[in-house]
């Protein structure tokens, strides 16, 4: 399925305002409500819209410390990679895990209440991950900007 300019406009609005009503969305993209609804359904069915979520405020939830952890594994075999990925996906404090090309094998984005809480996460979870040879943690001092919106 190829996207036209109206599909892209719908996606731009939805990814920033997922709770917008169909009537308001149709006005914003200059379509009738029924045509807009059909397009949104088609975009959802085609997998362009993966899900609708609420973005929570980490500070208000008490997890304002963000740590990026670079992980180097002992090897690159499928068994080592699969074991690591299965284990890391079970740690609730890890928001993202990326397989990398470069100096580290993986980069994790971890949230914690404080540096002490990160020490607990490190001790109880990260040090127990299978196949890890080396770990380096970098603490974010301040988030300059953050978005979930993809360029559409």
UniProtKB/TrEMBL annotation:
Coiled-coil regions listed: none
Cellular component aspect of the GO annotation: cytosol
Start and end residues of each HTH asnC-type domain: 3-64
Keyword set includes Transcription: yes
Annotated protein name in UniProt: AsnC family transcriptional regulator
SUPFAM superfamilies: Dimeric alpha+beta barrel, Winged helix' DNA-binding domain
Gene Ontology biological process terms, A to Z: regulation of DNA-templated transcription; response to amino acid
Record keywords: DNA-binding, Transcription, Transcription regulation
Pfam families associated with the record: AsnC_trans_reg (PF01037), HTH_24 (PF13412)
CDD domains, per database record: HTH_ARSR
PROSITE patterns found in the cross-reference section: HTH_ASNC_2
GO molecular function annotations of the record: sequence-specific DNA binding
Source organism: Pseudooceanicola nanhaiensis
Superkingdom of this protein's organism: Bacteria
């Amino acid at each position: 399925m190829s996207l036209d300019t109206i599909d892209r406009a719908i996606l731009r609005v939805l990814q920033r305002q997922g709770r917008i009503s169909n009537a308001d969305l149709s006005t914003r993209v200059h379509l009738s409500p029924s045509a807009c609804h059909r397009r949104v359904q088609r975009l959802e069915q085609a997998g362009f819209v993966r899900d609708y979520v609420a973005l929570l405020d980490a500070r208000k939830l008490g997890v304002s410390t963000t740590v990026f952890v670079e992980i180097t594994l002992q090897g690159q075999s499928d068994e080592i990679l699969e074991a690591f990925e299965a284990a890391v996906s079970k740690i609730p404090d890890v928001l993202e895990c990326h397989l990398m090309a470069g100096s580290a094998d993986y980069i994790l984005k971890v949230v914690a209440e404080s540096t002490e809480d990160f020490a607990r996460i490190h001790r109880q979870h990260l040090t127990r991950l299978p196949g890890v040879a080396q770990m380096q943690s970098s603490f974010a001092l301040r988030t300059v900007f953050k978005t979930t919106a993809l360029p559409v």
